[in-house]
Amino acid sequence: KNSNNDSTICVNGGVTFTLCDCQNKGTVTHGMNGTAKYIGSGVWVENGNGGGEANFVLYSGRISGNEYVKASIKYGAGVHVGANANFTMHGGSISGNKTAGYCGGVRVQASTASFTMTGGTITGNSASHDGGGVYVTNGTFTMTGGSITDNTADEFGGGVYNYDGTFNLNGGSITANRAKEGGGVFLLSSDGSFKMTGGSIAENTATVDGGGVYNNNAAFTMEGGSIADNTVVRDSSVADSSHGGGVYNNSNTFKMTGGSITGNTVDGGANDTSYGGGVYNRSEGTFEMSGTAT
Question: How many Å is the maximal CA-CA distance in the chain?
Fold first, then answer.
């Protein structure tokens, strides 16, 4: 239980919970209270009792269909990882969770919180504000496999929203996500960072700027992998220009020493004022390219 609502599974300090659904038929979800559904996170992992680290390991099964209905809520509807806690995802799915606020699929909230993804899918989650698939604040998200796909945010970060956190993309894919800005990834704050050594950010869509990546004052380092086939498709009702099909670098430094940015596009719609199919770098930002980068 958290301060607002009940979670289906709550893991406290000193406990490791392993979900291994061999038939992959089980679902962690909220039931019904009469005609209304119970509200809260599917899984809540946090050291709330001072008993050491809290750990959750997912091998298979689904965390699905969980929901928050208040616009001010910033808890992960699917999974919430708090202080002194770790979530490891080897398989299964976190899917179809939604929030009227922030963090549809996963929230990594504290500097002592971590999420490690080696397989499985985070898919079909939605947020009315930011972070449809994943929302990282201060903590660390490391991805070596699996996929973050088909998530949506009405505002920023359809696949990933990173504020003051650390996101390491070493493998796997962030694909087919959608948001107003940062269809695949949205980065905010100079204390946040995104390091990409492998994997792909591909086929994501924004309706304003940054189809693949929108960097707003974070440090982005690209040593490998690909940012490919992302697009900005301007909402025809908005009389403004569109920028950065692959990358929109608003401020701070985007440093690229390897990997590729290819096949990205910008469609300005009826107003058709568009810039930077691959990369759009504003005057406040710095884009550095060297080594084997293409």
Answer: 61
Alpha-carbon separation of residue 180 from 27, 68, 109, 125, 277 (angstroms) = 31, 21, 23, 16, 16
**pTM here?**
0.94
Q: Please state the three-class secondary structure of 127-190 as a single string.
A: ECCCCCCEEEECCEEEECCCEEECCEECCECCCEEEECCEEEECCCEEECCEEEECCCEEEECC
State residue 196 phi and psi, 5-degree precision: -120, 115
Q: Please, which residues bridge with residue 262 across strands?
A: 228
Element (H, E) at 89: strand 85-89
Sign of the dihedral defined by the CA atoms of residues 238, 241, 244, 250, in that order: negative
Identity of the amino acid at 40: G
Residue 224 CB neighbour total at 10 angstroms? 17
| Residue scoring higher pLDDT (177 or 240) | 177
d(CA 45, CA 96): 19
Contact 130, 101 (CB under 8 A): no
Residues 6 or more apart whose CB falls under 8 angstroms from that of 176 comprise: 149, 150, 202, 203, 204, 205
Residues 6+ apart with CB under 8 A from 283: none
Percent above pLDDT 70 for the chain: 91
Q: What is the pLDDT of residues 68-120, one digit of tens each?
A: 888 888 889 999 999 999 999 999 999 999 999 999 999 999 999 999 999 99
CA distance 241 to 243: 7
Interval 138-163 mean pLDDT: 97
